[in-house]
Amino acid sequence: MSDADKTTRAAPKAVNRPGAAQPPDDDAAPPGELGRTTIGEGVVTKVAGLAAREVQGVHDLGTGTARAVGSVTQKVGLGDAFNQGVSVESGVKEAAVDLTLVIDYGESIPRVATAVRNQVIKRVEFITGLTVIEVNITVNDLYFPGDDEADEAGGADEAARVA
Amino acid sequence: MTTDSDLVASGRVRLARLAGQAIAGTDGVTPTTGPAGRWLTVGGQQRIAGVLAVEDVHGRVDLELHLVVRWPPQMPLEQLGELVRGRLRDAAGAAGMAARLGAVAVAFDDVLTEIERA
Q: Contact B35/B76 with Cβ under 8 angstroms?
């Protein structure tokens, strides 16, 4: 691996890579003189979350509490829906991803988990250049059609009781 | 934020403008001023978003570009960064400013989906 291909770690929340291959002549600028490319850790997290959502059978990411809180924070412009339920530990060259999924009822959980794992590895490795060493998946809940309407009706009933 | 109070655009501001044009000419990326709105260069009446330009005592200008990428990216981010960097170097060369252009750091700070862009 040439010097220009080496990655270097700078800020703890970013992955830095030196610029392009060195110029061919003897007076070439030293590695890094061309500039660094930095990918924020939030970007890696978001890529992993978006990749998981591309898989058929994945209804949502995150735990029930996180999703409930997230629906409030997102309405007021805080928080990012696409990072919910995703945790990434990344270094200079490798990343480990933890996902919490809500899967549609009727889907094969092993099939969906495998598909999510493959899609996350494919997207993260292509987009960021990191090697994904593990994708840990927790299936937290199953989604039944009509679950959302039942939750809203329950909330309305509760409001009526409180009033 | 970097500012320049000269009435005539300095080399620093001119390179920042070329950087802004290089970003605009690259499909799939847009500049970002960041959560605090500080990633920009001010030159006269113009504000060049997503570009920080710092000139050293020798007149060389180092640039820091802050970008968001549209989902899904069509190429690896490192390659996309190189594309922007290459466009900027070509533009600086065409403007006779290649010797003043220093290191060009490219930072990808976010990914934007279609829903978020709407």
A: no
